[in-house]
Amino acid sequence: MKISVCGKGGSGKSTIVTLLAGEAQSRGYKVLVVDSDESNAGLFRILGFSQPPVPLMEIVGGKKKIISTLRDPASSELAPKAMVLTQDRIAIEDIPWENMVERDNLRLVSIGKILQALEGCACPFGVLSREFLKRLDEGDNGLVIVDMEAGVEHFGRGVEESVDSVLIVVEPSFESLELAGRINSLANGTGIKNVSAILNKVPSDDIASRLEGELVKRSIRVIGCIHHDSELFDSSLEGGTLRAGGAAEEIRGVLDSMLSKPNG
Ligand SMILES: Nc1ncnc2c1ncn2[C@@H]1O[C@H](COP(=O)(O)OP(=O)(O)O)[C@@H](O)[C@H]1O
Ligand SMILES: [Mg+2]
Predict the structure, then answer these.
(1) What is the position in ligand 1's atom list of the atom closest to the CA of 200?
(2) Which residues, other chains included, contact 112 with Cβ-Cβ below 8 Å and sequence gap of 6+?
(3) By CB neighbour count within 10 A (0-12 exposed, 13-18 middle, 19+ buried), where does 106 fall?
(4) Which atom of ligand 1 has the smallest separation from the CA of 235?
(5) Which CATH class is domain 2-259?
(6) pLDDT tens digits in sequence order for the chain, 264 residues long
(7) Global pTM value
(8) CB atoms < 10 A from the CB of 205, how many?
(9) What residue owns the CA closest to ligand 1's atom 8?
(10) What spacing in Å lies between the alpha carbon of 43 and ligand 2's midpoint?
């Protein structure tokens, strides 16, 4: 199963990805986190790794090469280790070792990062994300969790073409609710059956019901609520591995719900 975690910048996508990954790992799943947010550099740290993997974009030789390479693998002079990206099926074991960091049953790969100002448009990242996710075979007992870039552009680039579920992270703000509505229609338009929302950074149960009401009006199913967690907040201020208080409990039901069959 492949899950795409989407939402507004700062709503808590990377946090939710980390909580879900930790919970799934403790249940014995082989978890692969795909970092598809080119503007955020700290996912490896909150997942508990000491360094990030080399982004897949780098084995292709940068953004300019990616589109021609994937369109016509024969015509480009690809480095041998980049050929893996042109395979019809990419198993986890096929991913070059420097492009993945791993610990127990938790792995992280990264699509690419914006390293300089004026690097140009982000489309090649979208193309690489889409093609990688399409070809990626998570294997038995495998769970792929994608930390998606903020906003909705990735839908325009077809990145969600091959994911099974979309989880929208919603923080208490009008912007976040509006964006959830747009994500929901785009995901439905892509044909993804399993679209749901998780409330995050919720200060009170009253706010939780108001948010849920707003989401229901937009025909979005809410599968969980993560309250504001001060331990988690402190750990993100300190830097280093994410430490959660109540959020670690609250994520369990969310994972149960994601792993059960699509609601139809
Ligand atoms: N439930 C929560 N309680 C407290 N702080 C949170 C919670 N969820 C996220 N945060 C904090 O909000 C900030 C943004 O979260 P992050 O996961 O980086 O968002 P995104 O990946 O969507 O940009 C981080 O500092 C994070 O620690
Ligand atoms: Mg993030």
Answers:
(1) 1
(2) 38, 55, 56, 57, 58, 63, 124, 125, 128
(3) buried
(4) 27
(5) alpha beta
(6) 999 999 999 999 999 999 999 999 999 999 999 999 988 889 999 999 999 999 998 888 776 677 777 777 676 666 777 888 888 999 999 999 999 999 999 999 999 877 655 556 667 888 889 999 999 999 999 999 999 999 888 888 888 888 999 999 999 999 999 999 999 999 999 889 899 999 999 999 999 999 999 999 999 999 999 999 999 999 999 999 999 999 999 999 999 999 996 544
(7) 0.94
(8) 10
(9) 12
(10) 7
Q: Which ligand is nearest to the CA of 18?
A: 1
Give the pocket of ligand 1 (CB within 6 Å). 7, 9-15, 40, 200-201, 226, 228-229, 232-233, 236, 247
Residue of 236, 237, 238, 243 with the most ligand 1 atoms within 8 Å of its CB, for mutation:
236
Q: CA-CA distance, 9 to 12, in Å (whole number)?
A: 8
